[in-house]
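To: structure desk
From: M.T.
Subject: fold request, one chain
Message: Could you run this one when you get a chance? Sequence is below, nothing fancy, just the single chain.
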Amino acid sequence: MIGQSNLGPLREWEKRDVDVPAEAWERLVSAGSGRRFRRGDVLLRQGDAAAYVLVLVAGRVKVLRTSPDGDVLLLAVRGPGEVLGDVSVLGGDGRSASVVAVEPCTTRAITAERFRELVREEGLEGSFLRHAMSRLREGEAWRAELAALPAGPRLARALLRFADDAGDVALGQTELGQATGLSRSSVAAELARMRDSGLVSTAHRRVVLGDRPGLHELAESGHGTV
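Reply: Done. Structure tokens follow.
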């Protein structure tokens, strides 16, 4: 972690993924202190006590869960406007997953006690419950969607899912394997095929989508829809 920072005017924090009124969102974000993280920093660690919530203001993070036998599953990539750690704080449980920066991130940290207090005062329990259930359904649907797919369509769907608006996927081969259940060698082989077909270009720990329609066609060559 780089440290605390002054994040500037509230208009920079207006984006939000939780369905809450603008005034309530402003109050939540204003209650936090600024924290910045470098790429690779752990923002939240699985199993730790839930002492605070983070509002992601800038940058992207990956959400990882480690199974009892040591397998690591990449559950999601989250961007600005996401609230991180709210389920554990509201439920009184330990962290259920780790959150790691995939690029430099700026956040607002709100203590657990203050976050619960604001949620009660603003009547936001239902909003955060719906948000948590939506993420749970999203994860279950994603795992079910991938289960029956061959490697090519599976990886194509992952790239489309995790790309930002510019078509940049800030994940390496190991992380893409964690997201899809494929081995690193299988990911490397499929990326090589996609690169040769002009669908993507690759760099160190980065994939850039070059042909979104072509990737959609590949993704849909399996079962289901993208």
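Reply (cont.): The chain has eight helices and twelve strands. Let me know if you need anything else for the meeting.
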